[in-house]
């Protein structure tokens, strides 16, 4: 390890490695660059029980071919004084040649969940001798919809040591891993950047899906006294158009900056919007947009997380004495990007509980019937889970109102 330049262990490695070597199943939560891959590679090499049989002992699941290559290279780099056969499976294409290589004997197999399951069903991947199953970049595997493949492979592995690693911990992740590692030890490290950026006040609403985001925005916008001037950022002009059509504000109150469709209410200059006495909500697409002057806008919403985190930072950084509140909506799938933003700005974004009047949209479990849509409220009402219930909450806009009052004092 010293020859590879690893002179000191990182915080995550200090917390996780001894548990892996001790045989614990763990869920590791840490940001990019925390050393998760190197940690489990070391753990595997220290714990692996060698035998003469040709069946693999370790199965590592990764989201894409780039990650597979990185993992295989890391195993070979760290294990250069060991005689190991490590194989990364392709993500697609013919698999006959891969099956032949697997039959000859492999110690460690690295593959996407979809490819590993396909080879297993072809009787090319023997899971009877697996000692450890590892899920790397679990949040990306969830994002790509490969949860069922992971669960089926875990069921085929049986009673083994399970390791899962992710940058975030959220409900969709647990829906994937809890069936086979319900009692896993949580090892969590939260690393922020060394420099804290001077930003406007930040708030984060965690929501389950896109429709609930719309319901939340409509709920907040009912408070016209507080939300008198709002800029809402989305990622594309098409989303801007769709969002405009689902807002419940008066038609003269909402518009789009440089819209995709000419018949949408529009502004070509954000400064004209600021001076308008009627318009209080402007939707801005990050797509092809640069140098937005947000000075004088008291509320900045990120309805979607920008693909480039630097855009988010540009929107929330303080460039004048004007006070503003930057409010972000994020689903579980978007939380990894939120973590990157927090690391970039050197601070955590406080999570705010959803207002009680927000409708939580839940698609039909069978997926065969469309959810009833209430035009006045934004969706069918669903009772909240007990775990999400609160003994108190502020009404729509109350949190923002309190913040503004405190600043005026």
Explain the overall architecture.
The protein has 409 residues and is an alpha/beta fold. The protein has two domains: 11-188, P-loop containing nucleotide triphosphate hydrolases (Rossmann fold, 3-Layer(aba) Sandwich), CATH 3.40.50; 201-408, Rossmann fold, CATH 3.40.50.300. The protein is built from 14 helices and 14 strands. It has helices at 11-21, 36-47, 65-78, 96-104, 113-121, 138-143, 147-157, 171-181, 210-221, 237-245, 270-275, 309-316, 335-345, 398-408; strands at residues 26-29, 58-61, 86-88, 108-111, 132-135, 161-166, 185-188, 201-206, 230-234, 254-257, 266-267, 281-285, 299-302, 325-330. Strands 3-4-2-5-6-1-7 form a seven-stranded parallel sheet, sandwiched between helices. A seven-stranded parallel sheet has the order 8-14-13-9-12-10-11, sandwiched between helices. α1 (11-21) runs parallel beside α2 (36-47) and α5 (113-121) packs across α7 (147-157).
Q: Could you describe the largest sheet, including whether it forms a barrel?
A: 7 strands, parallel
CATH architect. name of the largest domain: 3-Layer(aba) Sandwich
Strand order within the widest beta sheet: 3-4-2-5-6-1-7
| CATH fold description of the largest domain | Rossmann fold
- In terms of DSSP E residues, the strand content is 5-15%
CA-based gyration radius? 25 Å
> Superfamily at the CATH H level of the largest domain?
P-loop containing nucleotide triphosphate hydrolases
| Helix-strand category | alpha/beta
Count the domains: 2
Specify the helix fraction band: 25-40%
User: End-to-end distance, in Å?
Assistant: 57 Å
Secondary-structure element order, as H and E?
A: HEHEHEHEHEHHEHEEHEHEEHEEHEHH
State the shape: elongated
């Amino acid at each position: 390890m010293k020859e590879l330049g690893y002179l000191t262990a990182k915080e995550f490695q200090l917390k996780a490695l001894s548990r892996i070597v001790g045989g614990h199943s763990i869920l590791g939560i840490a940001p990019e660059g925390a050393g998760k891959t190197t940690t489990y590679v070391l753990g595997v090499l220290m714990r692996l029980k060698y035998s003469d049989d040709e069946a693999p002992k370790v199965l590592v699941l990764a989201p894409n071919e780039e990650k597979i290559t990185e993992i295989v290279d890391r195993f070979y780099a760290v294990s250069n004084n060991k005689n190991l056969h490590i194989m990364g499976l392709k993500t697609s294409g013919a698999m006959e040649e891969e099956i032949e290589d697997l039959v000859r004997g492999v110690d460690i197999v690295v593959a996407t969940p979809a490819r590993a399951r396909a080879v297993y069903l072809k009787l090319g991947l023997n899971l009877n001798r697996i000692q450890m199953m590892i899920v790397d970049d679990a949040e990306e595997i969830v994002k790509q919809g490969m949860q069922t493949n992971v669960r089926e492979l875990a069921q085929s592995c049986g009673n083994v040591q399970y390791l899962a690693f992710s940058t975030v911990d959220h409900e969709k992740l647990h829906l994937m891993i809890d069936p086979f590692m319900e009692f896993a030890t949580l090892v969590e490290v939260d690393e922020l950047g060394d420099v804290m950026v001077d930003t406007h006040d930040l708030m984060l609403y965690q929501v389950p899906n896109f429709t609930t985001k719309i319901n939340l925005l409509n709920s907040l916008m009912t408070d016209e006294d507080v939300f008198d001037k709002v800029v809402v950022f989305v990622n594309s002009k098409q989303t801007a158009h769709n969002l405009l059509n689902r807002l419940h504000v008066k038609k003269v109150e909402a518009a789009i900056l440089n819209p995709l469709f000419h018949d949408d209410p529009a502004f070509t200059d954000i400064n004209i919007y600021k001076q308008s006495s009627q318009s209080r909500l402007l939707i801005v697409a990050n797509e092809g947009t640069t140098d937005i002057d947000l000075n004088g806008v008291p509320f900045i919403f990120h309805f979607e997380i920008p693909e480039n985190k630097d855009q988010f930072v540009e929107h929330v950084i303080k460039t004048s004495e004007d006070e503003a509140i930057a409010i972000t909506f994020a689903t579980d799938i978007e939380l990894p990007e939120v973590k990157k933003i927090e690391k970039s700005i050197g601070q955590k974004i406080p999570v705010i509980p959803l207002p009680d009047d927000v409708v939580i949209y839940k698609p039909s479990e069978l997926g065969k019937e469309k959810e009833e849509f209430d035009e006045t409220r934004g969706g069918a009402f669903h009772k909240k889970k007990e775990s999400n219930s609160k003994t108190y909450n502020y009404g729509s806009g109350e949190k923002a109102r309190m913040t503004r009052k405190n600043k005026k004092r």
